[in-house]
Amino acid sequence: MARKKALFYIETLGCPKNLVDSEVIVSNIQDVGYELVNNPKSAEVLIVNTCGFIQPAKEESIDVILDFVRLKKEGKCKKLIVVGCLVQRYKEKLEKSIPEVDFFLGLDEISEIKHICNSKDPFEDKRFILTPKHYAYLRISDGCENFCSYCTIPFIRGPVRSKSIDEIVNEAKQLADQGVKEIIIIAQDIGNYGVDIYGERRLNELLLDLDKIDDIHWLRLLYLNPQHITKKLLFTIKDSQRICKYLDIPIQHISDNILKKMNRKTSKKDLIQALGMINDLVPELSIRTTFIVGFPGETEKDFEELLDFVQKQKFDHLGAFTYFQEEGTKAASLPNQITEDIKQKRFEKLMEVQKVISQDSLERFIGKKLSVIVDKKIKPKIYECRSEFDAPDIDGIVFLEEADANVGDIIEVEIVNSLEYDLIAHPVKK
Ligand code: SF4
Predict the structure, then answer these.
(1) Domain stops at, among 327, 343, 363
(2) Whose Cα sits closest to atom 8 in ligand 1?
(3) In ligand 1, which atom is closest to the CA atom of 264?
(4) Any residues with CB less than 8 A from the CB of 91 and at least 6 apart, and which?
(5) How far is the CA of 143 from the centre of ligand 1 (A)?
(6) CB within 8 A of 40, min separation 6: which ones?
């Protein structure tokens, strides 16, 4: 009789970069005979993959750890393992304050999980895809050396460590063989890809090689810092049938006063030039960006400059954060910290402006035909989909009505209506 498999559950917090670590962990534990379950209450091994990027993320991680400590006390869970960025930053403090956790593992100790779960096999970097089967994140490098003054990532994740082009192409082929249709390229800053191993940035060369893999339908690029936007890269995106006309370009602010304090590598002039180049060469490109409001020393004038820029630029997708005074960062000790009340008001004002921009800009799709990928069936004949202009989880949805489709299908639809952030579509009649 087959031995009953031990059950484990993993909770992943934070960004897609963390999700990729979880996928490696899941694959390795499955290799040693464990089975992944969806309910933490039924698991014998509980794993929390934490995020330590900003205070709210740290608090969320601690809350989940404490929830799991409570579950462990109920008796079913025999091992509680906590991994990820929070551990990398605060291992000693965590070990002292939450002794109920059996193992705290930093980012460079993740491979230990396999041994903790009784394996004698060497660690292999395989992955079990936790996203829906038709899309997956592909991390091309880890770490960052940009040292933006508000950010802890360079201290947590260390310097840039890139995979080789061959390694990434092989990983992409394996994903395509597993049925993945959309590969989402990620790193802390994909524009810095290759500097450590090739002595120069090689994102463009990597994309040209990935673009040759027939079974991949879409390649999506997230987290490209604006200083890396070049004509060569834009032509590669323009000429490719696979690379989505989509870029996630974190801008963070537009006032030179703030950009300098943030230790960003671009000035207002550089940013306007880069966005102008995109508009000239690939006008259909959908841009997602992020801003931080309430950075130390941000005056009303700086904020108005940001609002004015956003109103003129009309980004397709915009996310914003209120600045958080993160311990250990240079920005935390800057004078003229902004009150929470003002930060919140600026955040709300910015998002209100963006809501109107998004609503207006989506109207241009009405009556147009688009290819969409089906992410989820909501109810009979209604599906959640995305076009090449939307990344999963963060951007808008194309709600497909009156259709019969399977999750993962790529189908042609006609846009019949638009909402604030989403579109409504019907299948194109053949
Ligand atoms: S580019 Fe800046 S914000 Fe992004 S991870 Fe690196 S230091 Fe942090």
Answers:
(1) 363
(2) 151
(3) 2
(4) 104, 106
(5) 9
(6) 9, 11, 46, 67, 68, 71, 77
Indicate which atom in ligand 1 lies nearest the CA of residue 151: 8
> What contacts 225, CB < 8 A, 6 or more positions away?
146, 189, 191, 192, 249, 250, 265, 266
CATH of the domain at 71: 3.40.50.12160
- C-alpha distances (whole Å) from 150 to each of 29, 60, 192, 294 are 36, 20, 19, 12
How many domains, the chain? 3
1 domain residue, yes or no: no
The CATH number linked to 403 is 2.40.50.140
Domain endpoint, select from 116, 151, 181: 116
Domain annotation covers residue 288: yes
Q: What is the pLDDT of residues 17-44, one digit of tens each?
A: 899 999 999 998 898 889 999 999 999 9
Please indicate, yes or no, whether residues 79 and 184 belong to a single structural domain of this protein.
Answer: no
Query: Is position 121 within any domain?
Result: no
Q: Is 184 in the pocket of ligand 1 (CB under 6 A)?
A: no
Ligand 1 neighbour 153 (Cβ under 6 A): yes
Predicted confidence at residue 119, as pLDDT, reads 47
In which domain, by residue range, is 24 found?
6-116
396 and 359 part of one domain: no
What percentage of the chain has pLDDT greater than the value 90? 84
Q: What is the CA 181 to chain-centroid distance, rounded?
A: 18
Distance 70 CA to ligand 1 centre (A): 35
Residues 61 and 110 in one domain: yes
What's the pLDDT score for residue 3?
Answer: 52
Side chain identity at 34, as an amino acid letter?
Y
CA 323 / ligand 1 centre spacing (Å): 14
Q: Does ligand 1 lie within 6 Å of residue 141's CB atom?
A: no
Distance CA 374, CA 167 (A): 29
* Pocket lining: 83 vs ligand 1, CB cutoff 6 Å: no
Record the pTM. 0.86
Does 251 sit in the ligand 1 pocket, CB within 6 Å?
no
pLDDT of residue 1: 47
Q: Is residue 134 part of a domain?
A: no
pLDDT in tens, 302-332: 999 999 999 999 999 999 999 999 988 999 9
Residue 118: predicted pLDDT: 66
Instruction: Name the closest-CA residue to atom 2, ligand 1.
Output: 148
Q: How far is the CA of 154 from the centre of ligand 1 (A)?
A: 7
- CA dist 218 and 370 (Å) reads 14
